[in-house]
Hints:
By secondary structure, the chain is mostly beta strands. The chain has one helix spanning about 10-15; strands at about 25, 35, 50-55, 60-65, 70, 75-80, 95-100, 105-110, 115-120, 120-125, 135-140, 145-150, 155-160, 165, 175-180, 190, 195-200, 205-210, 220, 225-230, 235-240, 245, 255-260, 270, 275-280, 290-295. Strand 19 and strand 20 form a beta hairpin. The protein starts with 8 loop residues before the first helix and ends in a 6-residue tail after the last strand.
Amino acid sequence: MFETRPAIRGVLAVLAIAAAPCVARAADATPPSYVLTAWTADKGLPAGDIWAMAQDADGYLWLGTQAGLVRFDGSQFVPWGAHGEPPLTGRAIQALTTTRDGSLWVGFADVGGATRIRDGRATHFSEHEGLSTRDVAALVEDRNGTLWAGSRAGLFGFDGNQWRRIGHDSALPDSEVYSVYEDRDGSIWAGTAVGVFRKSAGAHAFQLVSAERKSIQSIAQDPTGTLWVNDTERIVIAVDTPRRPELAADVRLPTPGWRLLRSTRGHVWIAALGGGLLRLTPGERTRPPTIERISYSQNCG
């Protein structure tokens, strides 16, 4: 039996879909800087929590849910298989990413391993191909074309043909890996059960950056270079600076975090478990970072 992970349907949808008549405005935003819509089951979103999202080169948004893979074109949600697509090995999808060759990669929680969807074909990778049979929680392609997979069995890398486990030869301990991230300098970060590790661009080995930050669910870097992480106890915390963000009056702590996403405008969006959608604005030399709540209507659209 696989272990389910809590998620927020509306908030995760809002993080990715920003094109409808419902206006979301922060307390100090005048005029409103974002237009967001929350899509729920009554708008056609299939039942089941959303665990992952990715956008392909054609603009389609793919949703990984506990009940399967779903494609969204801006108006309709279409489950994988509805038009005769080949069946996937598993159903519970907790990791998605697209790669430069046009592939969509799918990581599973129920059967483990990952599937590459390309040109209408679905190819599954598991133990025989060097990938773990345990659940895959994170998938990221770096700028050099290496695909990284974080799993309960550790960290894995894919060179285009074969997966290999990243282990002691790379100074990475045997531990669950919940999140993987590439920063602006090309360093690879891994959020593990025993701490946060970094492999600098061009380096072979990982280094322990923080033993205090454990079981990190998501990672994002703001324009100042500060790396932010969150886990199921803390909404967001910086890895490499002691500075703490100031909170708006309606932001309640402690609040567990779930997903982080940096916007093109330099903000970091935060999906909080039970805490809604929040936005982190990077600080400056004389001003600390701030976190504010974003209000939106789940009944608009």
